[in-house]
Design brief:
Radius of gyration: 25 Å
Number of helices: 13
Order of helices and strands: HHEEHHHHHHHHHHH
Structural class: mainly alpha
Number of strands: 2
Helix content: over 70%
Strand content: under 5%
Largest sheet: 2 strands, antiparallel
Shape: globular
Length: about 300
Amino acid sequence: MRAVFTIAASFSVLALLTITVFLFANGLPFIFRHWDSFWGTEWNLYADPPQYGILPMIVATILVTLLSVAIGVTVGLLTAICLYRLFPKKLVTPVSHMVNLLAGIPSVIYGLFGMVIFVPFVRDYLSPNGVGAGILTASLVLSIMILPTVVSVSLDSLKAVPTGYYEGGLALGATKEQTTFRVLVPAAKNGIFAGVVLATGRALGETMAVVMVIGNSPDMPKSLFQSVRTLTANIALGAMELSEEHTEALIATGVVLFVFTLLINIVFNVIREGRREKKQTPRKDKKAITDTKMAEEGITDAKE
């Protein structure tokens, strides 16, 4: 059984190493060969010579991810808090199941929903230039797609907080809302932060739904109401290209997306570790001060 568990645990590591080797072995030579044009602002595979600038897609990916996470995390966290303490207990279970069902809907259905509902709404009521497909529409669709992750992880984190925290807050005279937002949420922030990381990864890697509602023009983003293209959409749209160099260009785009995802996870881990150290340091200092005072009092008593 130890061998079985070792093989099972090693499978994911082996898969990650295989993907990493494939991407870097096929993508890095292309990046170094077209270094100047690869970081440019023009993407046109059929130009003479072909242009492989992915800077507009990097900017579009960052904007779509940040906006969707901002909307989705805000709504999801408030939903989790509502389900945890402020919602009627009889309705908590059905509503939680309904939210979790969102995770089982295929992404193409989200894209179709965005095409039929969000694109016309944004075009007719929000967009100043009459363009419905763009960054805002894609962010709205992605914010709905990441809701199950944020709600479920945040709700589980809130439920893991000891009941005594809530009762203690009420005993000190705080209202239910004050205790929830000022005691329970800070106590569950590590789990909530993990949900934010998962939601960011989902928003960053989503492809089909984004392709259907973002417009897919490889232009530099200048407005939320503009047709742009993300890194994942660029790979999906060019997947049928038969030219070997075009395929290498798409793999090189995958390398950038892979490194981008890796950097985001590293940044989140650094922030989390920094918060832990910041939280633990004052306790150590306080303990040291207390020990010093006790030692000084002990010396004084001994002299007396």
